[in-house]
Fold this protein.
Amino acid sequence: MRRGEAVTLRQVASHAGVSRQTVSNVLNAPERVEPATLAKVQAAIEALGYQPSRTARSLATRQAGLIGYGLARQAGHSLFMDPFLHAMTESIEQTGRHVLLFTAPPGHLGLQTYADLIAQRAVDAFVVSDTVDHDPRHAWLAERGVPFASFGRAWPKDGDQPGPWVDVDGARACARLAAGLHAEGHTRIGFVGWQAPTSAGSDRQRGWRAECERLGLDEHECVAVSAEVDSIEGGARAAAELLDSAVPPTAIVGVSDLLAVGVLNEVRRRGLRAGRDIWVTGFDDSVLAASIGLTSVRQPIAELAATVVSLLDTPYEDRGVLLPGELVLRGSAPLNSGTR
Amino acid sequence: MRRGEAVTLRQVASHAGVSRQTVSNVLNAPERVEPATLAKVQAAIEALGYQPSRTARSLATRQAGLIGYGLARQAGHSLFMDPFLHAMTESIEQTGRHVLLFTAPPGHLGLQTYADLIAQRAVDAFVVSDTVDHDPRHAWLAERGVPFASFGRAWPKDGDQPGPWVDVDGARACARLAAGLHAEGHTRIGFVGWQAPTSAGSDRQRGWRAECERLGLDEHECVAVSAEVDSIEGGARAAAELLDSAVPPTAIVGVSDLLAVGVLNEVRRRGLRAGRDIWVTGFDDSVLAASIGLTSVRQPIAELAATVVSLLDTPYEDRGVLLPGELVLRGSAPLNSGTR
């Protein structure tokens, strides 16, 4: 950066005929400065085009002006998480701050990265996402008094969710899918989930299971299978396991679009027709879902991002916001549009 | 952050029995400190668990420790750009720095955002991507002596590419696709491109066109159509235009996976079989391509990210690195695996 040409605070003070401390007060505590002096210094700042460096301002305000966001070091979810990152970055910028992006391994191993950023005072707060069951980050940050807000719940063992959070009601969305499929005559509704202990996946599966029970469906005819990996191939293998069983399902609820695409591929490979012989649904309404006519659940990305950023700036308290997902109906599961 | 508990530089100085300036020298210019003193201060730093704040260190080193990366405020490319962002963040972390993520509108409008970050000294350098034809950022940054490296070329009007860059040879990849299709007997090879003036799209189209000319193919039988938007629907409309012409193509090269999926949808809608009646190729080898058996071009993401970061730290000079794309052959265009 061309620092040599930058106007200095000393030049502003000289131009306004005040001390450097007075200029500093105008920048960081204008309420302490008399109106006439304030106007004089502000005129000098404008005349010289002075812009304080972020570093100098950080020392004065004790704020880095940055919100930390850790990318999960894993593939798979990025079809949905990256649009969220775009929306969140814009929401944070609307508050005059930027995003400090970093990567961290999942679980306890990742805490060292958070500790380093805190020790360096590199960020003012964190947005936590890609949460997993018993995610250690929320309690760890809360114990240290570090401001944060979470997109997604940590599902701690004791049921006490630390810190503010926003999430999509995945359980409710999957219950609505099961109810809609039942209304179309399906009684054997399978589920393809993740093997990895992600909070969102367990939540979605619980919603499907609870609705099947509420409808009085036979639990031996509504079976869940876990895919080893969140991939198209993983979804195809899980679907094969369901379809090879003694009482194969006539509908399959997938925990993600990626797995549901694998289910669709396996359905087609067997010469069956999706949306007729077997109904299939996904989750996330990614570009994948639109491309192949997959019924899916859309997460309200812009509202999730705006909410998580607003939670950062509310007084520190444990509060959660649950937003509904929107069913997007397509040919793979042509549900009645009145499905709620 | 709990600053009250942090160990201060003053405490380190007191513990080591040296001045605060000496501790500062140890942190920021250890070559100026005598070995015995260095060892003594380092022992005190370790004993007390002292970590200098990033802000204090920034003032001392005049480095923010952050590399700026602007997200394009547009949808579409994210299927490929977001994996690049993950890889780049990891590459930058390996150099002990982090990413400052921001959004900026395309073109000249976006320069104000770069100017603000420079004025605040918020970043040490920029990684520029999502480049468009005549992208103003490269020349603008180079004129101001701001360090940067670009993923993608700016294709300036005068042909002089400012600053270091890395890119994938899209022209060569599309020429190889055209040659491979011709080797399989195709003589009417269409192209579906972007209407927006993206550098990458024009480059790919030039490669396809040059190879068709080299092969002596009739230019009225090898036609390019631009999709209004980079979407599945845009690709389908462009394909319909090609297939409705007097001499419809038997193969279509798509400038992106998203458009190619639209082409495939239109092919299927007409009862034609992809990879038999009409051969179709995409670009990026996104998860979309794998899910529907689309022949595509894979960009070497990890190598691109590592290269752009290494270019940041080389002495400032105009140099470019062109990496080859890899043809990934699938059912939509079952080219001979010897295709080069």
Summary: Chain B is about 40% helix and 15% strand. The two ends of chain B are 56 Å apart (CA to CA). The first strand of chain B starts at residue 66 and ends at 72.
